[in-house]
TrEMBL record:
The entry's keywords: Cytoplasm, Endonuclease, Hydrolase, Manganese, Metal-binding, Nuclease
Protein name: Ribonuclease HII
Keyword Coiled coil carried by entry: no
Transmembrane residue ranges: none
Keyword Manganese in annotation: yes
Length: 204
């Protein structure tokens, strides 16, 4: 089933006027925020090349990012920073970002399809999770691209503020290089201390 068949089927089976897709980027990294995007695409639109953000190149993601923003009926991108992640844990931080993104849309959707296996409690919006949704739904795939590209852009900004960690190369993920930089320079203010308990313990 193509990405667009998911929405077509949902529109055909229900009385939805608008469908929102929600996805996140950055649950796993050791540094920086988790980003969440919510997108409402026009009912009859097909964006050429749209796919799960993990399956396409960085260059193609950048092109699709602009196309999605230009063509979406509404979109919202939210970031939940590393301090909040440390306070309430990454799952709750992700749910918070999803709630803010969905409820902050300029158009209130009839339903939000959410990538994963858990839904936030949305005010006045029906929510349904879709496991592997970024490979099944055009709306979720679009959200995955907005979240991923937005987070990557932010990590490039952090790379200028904290050049020693080389965030431009690993985007905060737990690569061999990243751990080597952590061993050399210690933990920065933008690292998730709850993800680095062995290093924070050693630092005490």
């Amino acid at each position: 089933m193509s990405l667009y068949e998911f929405e077509k089927q949902a529109y055909a089976e229900h009385s939805f006027r608008t469908i929102c897709g929600i996805d996140e980027a950055g649950r796993g990294p050791l540094a920086g925020p988790v980003y969440v995007a919510a997108v409402i695409l026009p009912r009859d639109i097909e964006i050429e090349g749209l796919n799960d953000s993990k399956k396409i190149s960085e260059k193609k993601r950048e092109i699709l990012f602009q196309k999605i923003i230009d063509k979406a009926l509404a979109f919202r991108i939210e970031a939940v920073d590393e301090q909040v992640i440390d306070e309430i844990n990454i799952l709750n931080a992700t749910m918070l970002g999803m709630k803010r993104a969905a409820e902050g849309l300029a158009i209130k959707p009839d339903i939000a399809y959410i990538d994963g296996n858990k839904c936030p409690d949305l005010e006045g919006i029906q929510a349904e999770f879709v496991i592997g949704g970024d490979a099944k739904s055009a709306s979720i795939a679009a959200a995955s691209i907005l979240a991923k590209v937005s987070r990557d852009h932010y990590m490039l900004e952090l790379a200028q503020s904290y050049p020693q960690y080389q965030f431009e190369r690993h985007k905060g993920y737990g690569t061999k290089l990243h751990y080597e930089m952590l061993e050399k320079y210690g933990i920065s203010p933008v690292h998730r201390r709850s993800f680095l308990k062995k290093l924070t313990g050693a630092a005490k």
